[in-house]
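Service request form, structural biology core

Requester: graduate student, group of Dr. S.
Request type: structure prediction, single chain
Budget code: on file
Notes: please return the result as C-alpha cells.

Sequence provided:
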Amino acid sequence: MFDRNRAEAEIRRSFPDVALLRDEPMSRHTTFHIGGPAPLMIIPSSTEDTIGVLRLLESMDAAPLLVGNGSNLLVEDAPLSFPVVKTHTNKETPVILDSCRLEAPAGITLSRLAVFAQKAGLAGLAFAHGIPGTLGGALFMNAGAYGGEMAQVALETTALINGKLVIIRGADHDFGHRHSCFSSSGGCILSSVLQLQPGDSDSIACEMDELAAKRRASQPLEYPSAGSAFKRPAGAYAAALIDQCGLKGQGIGGARVSEKHAGFIINGGGASFDDVLAVIHMVQETVKKETGFELEPEIRIIRANP
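Core staff response, request fulfilled:
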C-alpha cells in the first residue's frame, strides 16, 4: 500500500522545489474532466527532480501514474491507490541545437513546441499544433494527425527505465500506429531531440492555421474528450465503422458518441468514468456485431486499484 505520509516527508526533505498536492482531483488534470482524487500529486520543476522523485518512489515500491496534460486518459472517479507524477508545469523551454534540431523536455505541450519551432523557422511539427498532449505523451503513443506523426521527427529520446537513464535512438523507438517502445515496456520519457527542416515561419504559420480550421470543422473541440477513442483497425477506419453503425449521438449517462466526429466519445456534461466506459463497450459490441471489426481503445483506461 502506498505510504503517502512517508513519501511526502521524504520528497519535502530531499526535493524542496517539488510541488505536492494532497487528494488532488484528477478531473482537474484530464481533458475528459473525469477522475477521482490522487492521494499525492507530485509536480517536479526540473528533470533532475523528476529522476530523483521516481527513484525514490521506486525504492518505496510505489508505482506512480505518469501524467502530462492528461489528454489521452480516462481515470476512474474513485480515490486512487497510487501517487501521480505530473511532468507538465507550463514552464518547459525547448533548446535549438543547430539549424535542424531542437531538444525539448517531455512536459512541454505540443502546441507550445510547434509554435516555438515555427517562430524559429523549423518545419515538421505543424501537424502537432492542435494535438492537446505533451511531447512525452506524444512519443509514448506515437501521436499523429493529418499525415504527420512523431516517428517522422523523433531522433533520440532520453528516458528513465527501471531506475536507469537510457537514450533511445532511431528505430529503437519501435514506432508503430499509436505505439512505441515506451507504450509496450514502460519508463518515463524525460526529453527528446527532434529532427526538423529549415522552413519559412510565415508559411509554417499558415499551415498551422489551415490545420486548426480543419480540426474546428471536423472535431468536437467544444466538449471535453480524450481525442480519438479507438485505434485504427487493419483495413478500415474506426470513425467510419462507428458512423456506419448509426452510433453518432448515441450515449449513456453524460457520455456519448460525438455527432460531429464518430471517432470521439465526449463528456456532454457530468459524465462519469462508468458512463464513458459503457459507451466504449457499446461501440465495440455494436461494431463487432455489425461489421466484424474489433475496435481497440486508443484511450488509456486507468483504474483506481489496478
